[in-house]
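Workshop exercise sheet. Pairs work together: one partner reads the sequence aloud, the other fills in the structure field after running the prediction. Swap roles for the next sheet.
Pair: D.N. / O.F.
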Amino acid sequence: MQTGARSDSEQAPEAADARPGAKPSQPPPRTDASAQSAVAGAPSNGHGADPDPRFQATRNATIMIIDDEPVIVDILRSVLEDAGYHSFIETSDSTGALELLSENKPDLVLLDVNMPEVSGLDILNGIRADEALKHIPAIVLTGASDSATKLLALGLGATDVLGKPVDPSELALRVRNTLTAKAHQDRLLNFDALTGLPNRRLFMERYAKALARAGEKSGQCALLLLGLDRFQKVNDTLGTEIGDALLTAFAAALEEHTRESDLPGLSGVDEEEIALSRVDGDEFALIIPNLPHAEICDLFSRRILSMLEKPFHVGGQEVHITASIGITVYPGDGETTDALLASAGAAMAAAKKSGGNGYHHHSTEHNAKSRERQELEAELQLAPTRRELFLSIQPKLEVQSGRVAGAEGTLRWKHATWGIVAPEKFLPIAEETGLIIPAGEQALNLACALNKQWQSSGIEAIRVSVNVSGRQFRNLENLVNTVRRVLDKTGLDGKFLTLKFPEAVLMENPERNVTALQELKSLGIRLCLDQFGTGLSSMGYLRHFPLDEIKVDGSLVKNVPGNKDAAAVVIAAIKLAQGMGLKVVAEGIESEDQLTFLKKWGCDEYQGKLSIEQTTDWQKNARKAAEALDNKSKSKSKSKSA
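Structure field:
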């Protein structure tokens, strides 16, 4: 008989009945002499799980029971289940025991000595000779009355020896104490005593597993190696006690900053898998698995360096410290743990050589991209005050009449030296760094002020729509206050403003977002689901959102009417929206054939190259109004400065 690990969640009647003679949650009857001699007084009412909180953590341990008598295995398991344990591996086949041990690596082994073919002492000898198994504690069970067998078992590395028949209470206590000692040993073996973080040994083990998973999925895995700058000076001037306190405080702050829930740009990264370790005196390692793109390493590095801008207060001292960070990415920078760790060390050394308080990629290409990104971010910080951000206006037309029904304002950046910066270059940076919050507020203010100016200039009143990013939407209270403040400031009626939300953002937390949208809706504005059709899960929730319109993504519309599959999706979207009383806007319309298709199926509005070509007069008037608004703004600025 040989089975895998079983837990209390697997105690369905059919699973329990698979063991001959066993009943759910009950020990099997002991019907033979060997069973009678195995345990002295099998539990009837049970002695219950130990309530002492010091030992509760050991209840999740996996215990492997090896005995050639299946009935004895069942009795031992029943005793331990009664003591509160629930995860077991069982076998009565001694010939396959070592293989099963290697596959499962339990926390404790209960091992019978007298078994045919392969004895318990042979198995014990194999455990202690195996590098991966040698630290697993083993309690040997023997019916031998002579001390020679017990001494031989202890000499081979048995943790404890129990004579048969085994007293249930004694067995439970021996198991508890052995597991508690193992937990303490594991803690010493795998964790840093000063900071409580995983140590170098556990880091290398986790890193190897992370690289293996990345290799299986053809993905990337990043390693950030952090070293405190001039840490020895702290020890020399303030003493090692302050130095140790600083390391502990730094480790705690580092752990907190890598566990925050709002880590923008980390889609696809499981925060629970981000592994932080202390690998040397003042060096720490951070593993980022499932890396979508290398820029995330820059984001993490900047967060850490920003964290160090504030001093640490330790031992009554205010201590300023900086760090240097080396970055390496699998598989581009290497394929083994040793090679990648060496690459990260070299990159960290380069960061220190450059003066510290910075980060450096091992890859030359990544370093160039990193420098470009840092420059873009620095310039983007200044863009609002330099008045370099502006709105690109694209008109929306009614499909049936061709009348201008609205306009979409999209944030753009015109740098004094670089000229127009592509949105795909600066918008992700704005989102990840939080710059999208002030930039988005400026876009909203410009859109509302511009719409009000159009109305004052005699242009027919229309709705203007503005994008809301994920970062803005997650900070709901700020968004609501901003919209309310901008409407009051510009005097624009809320019915002339539409906020657009990407489908993916709304689907992050549909239940919460229904309430959030209702709060925005109370301001009198219209709400639009943007990029509709790019996600897979919105259909079920769409009817719950208090929306006014959906915008069919241009990637779907570009292939109609020629592509039957694309046409079917667009038709389905239009019919779905119509059935729910929502307006449908199609983007990316470039041809009359596409427009004819939209007319046939009842789409409400469209925008794109075709709408721009058909509204030259409207655009001239809109630009004149924008110039007038800009002149007003400049006059106000001059009067304030005067």
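Discussion prompt: The radius of gyration is 34 Å. What would you look at next?
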